[in-house]
Amino acid sequence: MERKPRLLLAEDSPVMARQLRLLLAQDYVVVGLVTDGESILSALESLAPDVLVTDISMPGIDGLAAAEQALRTYPDLRVVFITVHDEPSLVARARALPRTAYVLKADAGDALPAALDAVLAGRWYASASITREKVRK
């Protein structure tokens, strides 16, 4: 049997963290949950996940800054940003990083599994609503 990918979840909202964990638990092994950017970096070292699923807005170091640092340190790590922010500058900053995907929380049910599949296969992914926004501009 194929090994399920291991995920570290970084989300500071307990309600959202619970929903994401339920959504992910069927197809992935959620190895840990952290609630701030500093904890992401120490958890990556101790838990060695395949993918970091992180919010952007969090206490301390934000998820984007933590991911930038983590991707330099862990060359096999994949990152899926899951956020309410659809600002083009944030999307562009995430897009410039290797091995990433960008999902809006409103799209998580459909988009999060697709984003995980994409990053695990080495492809960029963005929520359809972000793609539509960019097409309209």
TrEMBL record:
The keyword Phosphoprotein applies. SMART domains: REC (SM00448). Residues 6-120 form the Response regulatory domain. The keyword RNA-binding does not apply. Gene3D superfamilies: 3.40.50.2300. It comes from the Bacteria. This is Response regulator transcription factor. It comes from Noviluteimonas lactosilytica. The lineage of its organism: Bacteria, Pseudomonadati, Pseudomonadota, Gammaproteobacteria, Lysobacterales.
